[in-house]
Design goal:
Blueprint (H helix, E strand, L loop, with lengths): L1 H18 L16 E7 L6 H16 L4 E6 L7 H10 L4 E4 L2 H6 L15 H8 L2 H14 L1 E8 L3 E5 L13 E4 L3 H9 L3 E4 L2 H9 L5 E4 L1 H6 L8 E8 L2 E7 H6 L2 H35 L3 E3 L3 H8 L2 H5 L7 H12 L1
Parallel strand pairs: 1-2, 1-3, 6-7, 6-8, 9-11
Antiparallel strand pairs: 3-10, 4-10, 5-8, 5-9
Helix pairs in contact: 2-11, 5-14
Length: about 350
């Protein structure tokens, strides 16, 4: 009798286990993998390098996540100026962004030497520093200070000055009303050249140029073209005053919401998009020049040495704001790359 009772109870328990069966051991429910949606903010409009790369990133992560990760793109500063985006990344209300050096000024100012002019001669030099020990310290500082993770860097073309009169030497800049990003080292640099710098949001710059609020601006060729500045500016003055980069950043609040599989995917695709971006930039510089010439812009050869001479004291003015010996350490890393 006891044997029959034991058999009955065992059969009952096994049947219950089978009815509750599923993906987890001892559980019968089939669990649906968690899905996520993230937002990406960037400044470029249709066809700009950051726009092209954002779309490639979206395509890849959505495909590789098999629908678990959906990406919403917000270009042309739809979600706000870069200064505001940094705050929203810290809060987690924006998940990801492709940004200029503003994110460094706001989130790791002790390392933000990147806005100084005429430090780097090539993209190779920039990447050697960013991917080395100095770059690692920058990543750690940004995460600690603002909870923002760097997942990749994408080179930008050299920044050039556009205007409605030709600029050939540093002395020609005197009195020029120019729009610049809101960073102290930009302001001091253009003041040293005798210009009147103003901070205007990138999305508002076209109208500011058209209405004469400012008469000049500086950006890589890709932005000059994609934002149609050729309609309101006549000259591209080849100052090449800054070689900078985009930083692909992710809110750590967003990163921590992800399960390990999604964390791994985002970090892997961050590495991929860096190379994709750099290959794109390398191929596109000559194309953008031709497009701008076809639109009627005149390219002006500039005495860059006169600009370098006028700006040579700028790094020393800001050295107290940076970690000790940052400028000297970067020059050492550049020397190795050369």
């Amino acid at each position: 009798m006891k044997t029959k009772l034991f058999s009955f109870v065992l059969s009952f328990l096994l049947a219950g286990a089978l009815m509750a069966g599923g993906t987890k051991e001892g559980s019968g429910k089939v669990e649906t993998p968690k899905t996520y949606q993230i937002s990406i903010s960037y400044g470029g409009s249709e066809g700009a390098e950051d726009d092209i790369c954002a779309k490639e990133f979206k395509k890849r992560v959505e495909e590789k996540s098999k629908g678990r990760l959906t990406v919403k793109l917000y270009g042309n500063e739809q979600l706000g100026k870069e200064v505001d985006v940094v705050n929203q990344l810290q809060l987690g209300s924006i998940d990801m962004a492709i940004m200029g050096t503003t994110v460094h000024e706001q989130a790791a100012p002790e390392y933000n030497i990147w806005s100084a002019y005429y430090i780097f001669r090539s993209g190779k030099e920039i990447m050697s520093v960013l991917n080395g020990p100095i770059g690692q310290k920058v990543q750690e500082a940004m995460l600690k200070n603002k909870g923002i993770r760097i997942i990749g860097y994408g080179l930008r073309g050299p920044r050039h000055l556009t205007s409605n009169r030709p600029i050939k030497t540093a002395s020609d800049v005197k009195g020029l009303k120019i729009r610049i990003p809101l960073q102290p080292i930009y302001v001091e640099s253009w003041k040293a050249l005798g210009a009147f710098p103003q901070a205007i949001a990138l999305g508002e710059l076209y109208m500011a140029l058209k209405q004469g609020i400012v008469e000049a601006q500086e950006n890589p060729l890709s932005f000059i073209y994609s934002l149609a500045f050729y309609e309101v500016q006549k000259y591209v003055n080849l100052t090449g005053h800054q070689r900078a980069f985009f930083t692909y950043v992710l809110s750590d609040k967003t990163y921590q919401r992800f399960d390990p599989e999604m964390q791994k995917l985002i970090l892997e695709e961050g590495k991929f998009i860096t190379q994709f971006h750099n290959d794109l930039q390398d191929k596109s510089e000559a194309d953008y020049r031709k497009k701008l010439e076809d639109k009627g812009m005149t390219f002006v050869e500039v005495d860059q040495q006169s600009f370098q001479n006028a700006l040579k004291d700028i790094p020393a003015k800001f050295s107290q704001k940076w970690v000790p010996n940052l400028y000297e350490d970067i020059l050492k890393e550049i020397a190795k790359a050369r």
